[in-house]
TrEMBL record:
GO terms for biological process: DNA-templated transcription initiation. SUPFAM superfamilies: Sigma2 domain of RNA polymerase sigma factors, Sigma3 and sigma4 domains of RNA polymerase sigma factors. Residues 98-149 form the RNA polymerase sigma factor 70 region 4 type domain. This is Sigma-70 family RNA polymerase sigma factor.
Amino acid sequence: MEHYYRELVSFLCARLGNRQAAEDVAHDAYLRVLERTEGQQIEHPRAFLYRTALNLVVDRHRRHQVRQAEPLDVLDSDERWHSPAPSQSMQLDQRLALMRQALDELSATCRECFLLRKLEGLSHQQIAERLEISRALVEKHIVNAMKHCRQRMRQWEG
């Protein structure tokens, strides 16, 4: 199913008008498909992947619409945005520690690709140039890192 990645990103880029957003949606689509079909054979993998990606685009658009409609002064005055409940912040600290642990289990290159993409927002091409590896390898590392982290978080939380 990985060989559909570039095609899917191009398809999503045409709809979203932004390559980075298209790559993010493609990653999320791959993760959803991998999670839902683990060990199962998919009859029409390309169609399933595209449908999942389009659903994510619709969800993304709806979230954007809701954010646009929310007045900023309401968000500023809402205490919840400034000080999370103690149990909530502890839970967040625990989740971050677990995420760090999952990332430490990855190879250095895989972890670096993931962090450059998710924390620094670099494109796949920029990461490939910085690490002197192919763009396809960058894409594979990012998908593998996301899948690994999700699986580990599920194991630890479940």
